[in-house]
Amino acid sequence: MVQAAPLAASALPALALAEIDVPGEAAGSRAMLYRLGYADAQQLCAYQQARWSQPPAVLLQQRLRERLGAAYSVLDALDRPLQSGGNARPPVLRLSLEEFSQLFASPERSSALLRLRATLVQPQTEGERLLGQRVFVLQQSAPSADAGGGAQALSAATEALAQELQAWLQLLQK
After folding, report:
1. What is the pTM of this model?
2. Listed residue (98, 122, 121, 125) closest to 33, CA to CA
3. Does domain 13-172 have CATH number 3.40.50.10610?
């Protein structure tokens, strides 16, 4: 069976990925967060002994870079243009992580809640042109009502987000 050769990175369309913004929270926090929806859904709490290996925004950015790298030549938003002249800058994807937590519907039932605002802009000489904006909200059931179950559910939600984000970008760039 003959397999098609993978596209060279230079043949892929370029996409600049900006650092993920984390409003309202310390961007460097590694705390694993949860909400007790059945008691006070407004209060965000941190597990005492559960931490991420890196801040959630960094972990999310790494996974999105890997996933989007299959369809795009992913650059840092601050990279120089690929070519000289004209509108050589690639579109810039800006992301704002609004929620990355475990939500308890009851003491025995929880789910991951991931909310991300994505904005795609095209840099131009006179500023930027908005290509699209969307809020992604994903909720994934946790296999258990504890930090381990929450981590598994947040990982699954991240994978689903990466798929939805890639599909949305492809739709915008047709």
Report:
1. 0.85
2. 98
3. yes
